[in-house]
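Anyone up for a design puzzle?
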């Protein structure tokens, strides 16, 4: 089904810049969940059994609600259309539903109870749920989406998405690969705390990279790494040295690699975007220049 609208085609899609799910979007997500409870879609995980024992016939709403309260304890059940949960809690709800959903398919009709016995097609049900959720979020300019597996992700600004759309972590050092991939994947998480954690791991990767080239000490090893990126004595080499010093200073003065009271907390998402892209771009240059990532391949990135 075509899901774009006239305004999308004529004026472009609404920018996904809001990091808060508003009451209008919640007013549609609420019945979206309720409709799938009603048609038995969540019976894929929470199947209601026919009283005659002839098979599943829908969604066990009591089990659905009990598990939801246990797995998302911050959420009030039954849900209320007029009471907007916090955005991370709504995202947890959507992930919970994505794990439970399937497309209900009628197997047979049971005339005595006037109901159908059902089976579920998981892939079709999940794809339909993800598409419906993402349409509502997109139309309201909300910077989150569900991926194909039903996991919530933040929709990053295009420069950030382009940077993270390259997987280039075959550096020859297992720990560096781990730090880089952890940072890249974690930065896609919706929560600001997770994205701070990703930024910390990126700075840790920077410190480890400084020790990989030959040299008598860390300073000599770091200089050798920069020499791979630009010829010694050139203005570019000097600029890269200044950038390395600046990034090291940022990591020590802001609360990225340390947690002393003198470090300043980064509390705005757009500030993290800028810092992450700045460091990620610098590391990418060093990886390519040192021959530690000769053939980067696109992963698809984020929208």
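Challenge accepted. My sequence:
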């Amino acid at each position: 089904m075509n899901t774009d609208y006239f305004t999308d085609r004529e004026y472009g899609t609404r920018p996904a810049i809001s990091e808060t799910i508003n009451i209008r979007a919640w007013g549609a997500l609420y019945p979206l969940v309720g409709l799938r409870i009603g048609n038995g879609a969540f019976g894929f995980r929470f199947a209601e059994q026919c009283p005659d024992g002839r098979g599943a016939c829908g969604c066990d709403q009591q089990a659905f609600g009990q598990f939801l309260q246990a797995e998302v304890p911050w959420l009030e059940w039954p849900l209320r259309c007029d009471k907007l949960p916090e955005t991370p809690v709504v995202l947890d709800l959507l992930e919970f539903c994505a794990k439970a959903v399937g497309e209900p398919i009628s197997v047979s009709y049971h005339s005595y109870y006037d109901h159908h016995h059902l089976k579920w097609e998981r892939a079709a049900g999940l794809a339909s749920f993800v598409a419906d959720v993402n349409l509502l979020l997109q139309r309201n300019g909300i910077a989150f989406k569900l991926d194909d597996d039903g996991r919530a992700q933040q929709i990053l600004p295009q420069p950030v998405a382009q940077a993270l759309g390259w997987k280039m972590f075959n550096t020859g050092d297992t720990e560096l690969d781990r730090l880089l991939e952890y940072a890249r994947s974690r930065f896609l998480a919706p929560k600001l705390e997770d994205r701070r954690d990703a930024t910390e791991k990126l700075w840790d990767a920077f410190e480890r990279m400084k020790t990989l080239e030959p040299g008598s000490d860390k300073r000599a090893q770091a200089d050798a790494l920069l020499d791979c990126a630009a010829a010694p004595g050139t203005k570019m080499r000097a600029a890269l040295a200044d950038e390395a010093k600046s990034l090291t200073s940022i990591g020590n003065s802001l609360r990225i690699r340390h947690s002393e009271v003198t470090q300043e907390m980064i509390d705005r998402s757009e500030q993290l975007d800028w810092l992450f892209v700045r460091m990620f771009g610098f590391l990418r240059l060093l990886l390519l220049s040192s021959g530690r990532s000769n053939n980067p391949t696109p992963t698809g990135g984020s929208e």
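A detail worth pointing out: The CA atoms of residues 7 and 13 lie 7 Å apart.
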